[in-house]
Structures are given as structure tokens and as C-alpha cells.
Specification:
Layout lengths: L1 H23 L21 E4 L2 E7 L8 E5 H41 L2 H21 L4 H23 L2 H38 L5
Helix pairs in contact: 2-5, 3-4
């Protein structure tokens, strides 16, 4: 009687274990839920989960990345970011070359403009000399030739000084061009950073 009851208890216990196992155990053939960051093995393989397409590839945002499933938006934005980094490197080289070239021209213009304060000082000096001679009314006739000479020198110096105005404008133009090149590169660098942020969101693990 006791042996029979023991067997019955064991049978019931075994049945209970099987029931629990059937409820909690994951089927051996159950597929892993695919999302960003889930490992995969076949490069460039694609699959669709709901409305989202995933591709088996290496995440361009990570160093030494292994093959994982990546959503189409992740692949697209990370590819855009990678291209922006490459383009930015080229733009940096081009920008630096342009700035060097413009800077060389700017330096030459500035050397030329070093004559401006010299000429301006001469204009002031000649003007004072002419005015002083004209103020000596008692000797106007005596100083007439000298006044004419200094006045001629004054006119020529003023004319020479005026000839530097276009060069001054060129300096302003070149300086603006250099600033524009720098701003364009900064803008491209800023856009690249924004693309990286977007890619990180799109490639967030589990998404």
C-alpha cells in the first residue's frame, strides 16, 4: 500500500514538473528577436521585422565592430555620417590650401599698404609747410616759387595716397574670403557632428 502511494506521488510530481516545463521552457527553435546590435553571421543578409528592414553588417560608428543586425535607418544615417567624415577631411585639405594661397596674397597687399602711413605723414608735412608759407603774407611774393613746389609735391603725394584705396579694398575682400572659407568648414564640421548624433539614435541597441 505504501509503495503504491509513493509511486502515485512520484507520478503526480513528475507530471507537475512536465507541465511547468512546458509553460516556462523556450522552444529550441524559437528565433532570437532581431533588433539593432543583435549578433548575426551572414554579411549583408537582410530580414524584415514588422515594417523595419534589418541588415547584417558592421556598425560604422564603432571601432572593430562585429556583424550585427542594423535597421535600414541605422545603415543609411551611419553611411551618411561616414561619407561626411570623408568629405570633411577633403574639405579641410582644400580649405587650408585656399587659405594659405589667399594669405600669401594678403601679406603682399599689406606690405604694399605699409606705404600708406608714410605717404599720409608726408601729406601732413607738406600741408603744414604750404600753410606756413602762405601765412607769411609779407613774403608771399618771395616764397611763391617755394609754395608752388611744396604744393606740387602735396598734390602728387595725395594722388599717390589715393591710389592705395583699391588695395585697401582688396585687403578687406581677401580677409572676408578667408573668413568665409573658415566658416564653411566649421559649418561642414557641425553638420557632420549632427549626422553622428542622428546615426547614434538610429543605431541605438535594441531599437
Amino acid at each position: 500500500m505504501e509503495v503504491f502511494m509513493l509511486r502515485k506521488v512520484l507520478v503526480l510530481a513528475g507530471s507537475a514538473i512536465l507541465v511547468v516545463a512546458s509553460i516556462t521552457a523556450v522552444p529550441a527553435n524559437a528565433a532570437t528577436k532581431i533588433s539593432n546590435g543583435v549578433p548575426c553571421s551572414k554579411n549583408n543578409a537582410t530580414t524584415k521585422v514588422g515594417s523595419v528592414t534589418y541588415k547584417c553588417a558592421k556598425n560604422a560608428l564603432k571601432k572593430n565592430a562585429k556583424l550585427t543586425w542594423l535597421s535600414s535607418s541605422c545603415v543609411k544615417t551611419s553611411k551618411g555620417y561616414t561619407k561626411s567624415v570623408s568629405d570633411l577631411a577633403k574639405e579641410k585639405v582644400d580649405t587650408d590650401a585656399q587659405i594659405v594661397s589667399f594669405q600669401e596674397g594678403l601679406d603682399k597687399l599689406k606690405v604694399t599698404l605699409e606705404q600708406v602711413p608714410i605717404l599720409a605723414a608726408k601729406v601732413e608735412d607738406y600741408t603744414q609747410r604750404v600753410n606756413a608759407l602762405k601765412a607769411d603774407t609779407e613774403n608771399l611774393a618771395k616764397n611763391a616759387a617755394t609754395i608752388t613746389a611744396w604744393n606740387t609735391a602735396l598734390i602728387r603725394t595725395k594722388t599717390a595716397l589715393l591710389s592705395y584705396r583699391p588695395i585697401s579694398q582688396q585687403v578687406i575682400t581677401v580677409e572676408k574670403a578667408i573668413a568665409e572659407f573658415q566658416n564653411q568648414y566649421k559649418g561642414a564640421a557641425s553638420d557632420s557632428k549632427k549626422l553622428r548624433k542622428s546615426a547614434k539614435v538610429a543605431c541605438k541597441k535594441g531599437r
